[in-house]
Amino acid sequence: MEKTPLPELSAGNRYYDNTMLSAYKDCPRKYLIRHILGWRGTGVSHALAFGLSWHSAMDTLWQHSRGLPTGARKDVIHLSMDSFLKTWQAEGLPSEPTIEQMDVLGARTPGVAQAMLDGYLQERWKIIQEAELLACEQPIAVPLPGVTDVWYIGRLDKVISLNGDILTLEHKTTTEYKKDGGFKTAYVEGWYSDSQIKGYQFGGGLFFPGHSQVWVDAALVHKTVHNAFRLIPVAHQTPLLLEWAADTREWVERIETDTLRIGTKHIAFPKNENSCMGKFGPCPFLNICRTTPDPMQLDGPPEGFVEDFWKPFDILGLDKLTNKEPK
Q1: Cα(133)–Cα(169) distance, integer angstroms
Q2: Staple 17 to which of 51, 201, 223, 312, CB 3.0 to 4.6 Å?
Q3: Cα torsion at 313, 318, 322, 324 (round to 10°)?
Q4: What is the pLDDT of residue 70?
Q5: What is the pLDDT of residues 37-75, one digit of tens each?
């Protein structure tokens, strides 16, 4: 896609990221509780903590590996593991879990991460040496067509130049293991219709002229298999990216219509009861919905929940883009 001038970006605009849109698509009531009331559970999501920690390790690994001799791999793994543990511990998890804690964590442990890093660096060494790292944790903001001061925002894990192509590398971890080895087919194929990946291809094209695709850099998390990695290239033609932009605008308009209905006689943010029990277990807000028809009538977050608003402008570092043109 051709580079286009971006409208002025400011903290006063309205922003929607994949986390917010996914919550609404899953269940409008879930969106209300998490993103209007700002409530979240007090427990730690092991899957989320592991994913965040893996991202930290990947940042260090990709920034420090290029140009090094093969014999320096151990030093890079050591640095990367330090980054993993820093994030892991910041999420309230132990660097050396007890046997009881390991039973709860399953495959998502620092020991497994250490073994994965060794396997990953061996698997990706050639690409890392050949690629030029253009950006790491690059925030993007995509102006949505037909609406004013509304942006789709995100952050590209890595933007690299490889063999003349400019592409985004998105690190993902999964436990979706196939018994005969590798990843489940549904996991791999799911990325070809993933809204976040489409948005990142669209946004990457605005900020990096010549950007053509997104590679999902999948890493399998397994207690005994530590060398299963897969690059999943995703490249959509312009009509499908424009469809994504139009669809995203429609979802945003639905969210904003529901927001305007709060306090009126119209039902705002209705439940989608088909999503109360999802693929990975019950909705984190299921107990709230089971006990009250209107969480906005509660005095505050119930026991087991705290008020902690999701602030994507700050989390994604969009201040780096304020009043700046794309690259």
Answers
A1: 10
A2: 312
A3: -160
A4: 87
A5: 999 998 888 999 999 999 999 999 999 999 999 888 999
* 226 bridge partner residues: none
**H helices present in the chain, as ranges:** 18-26, 28-31, 46-65, 73-90, 99-105, 110-130, 185-190, 195-207, 238-261, 286-291, 312-315
Question: Contacts from 192-197 at CB under 8 Å and sequence distance 24+?
Answer: 192/234, 194/234, 195/18, 195/21, 195/22, 195/244, 195/247, 195/248, 196/18, 196/22, 196/154, 197/170, 197/234
- Residue tagged 């030029």 (tokens): 132
Cα distance between residue 191 and residue 136, in whole Å: 21
Q: Which residues, at least 6 apart from 144, have a Cβ–Cβ distance to it below 8 Å? A: 150, 151, 152, 245, 248, 249, 252
pLDDT tens string 150-171: 899 999 999 999 999 999 999 9
Q: Contact at 8 Å (CB) between 50 and 113?
A: yes
d(CA 243, CA 79): 42
Q: d(Cα 18, Cα 315) in Å, to the nearest integer?
A: 13
pLDDT digits (tens, 9 = 90+) for 275-322: 998 777 899 999 999 999 999 999 999 999 999 998 877 777 777 776
Position 9 confidence tier, pLDDT thresholds 50, 70, 90: low
pLDDT digits (tens, 9 = 90+) for 212-251: 999 999 999 999 999 999 999 999 999 999 999 999 999 9
262 neighbors 36 (Cβ within 8 angstroms): yes
Residue 21 contacts residue 251 (beta carbons within 8 Å): yes
3-state secondary structure of 113: helix
Rounded to two decimals, the pTM is: 0.90
Q: Token digits for 171? A: 């690190």
Q: Give, rounded to a whole angstrom, the gap between the first and last alpha carbons of the chain.
A: 14
Paired tokens of 136: 């790491």
Give me the helix-helix angle, 18-26 and 238-261, nearest 10°: 70
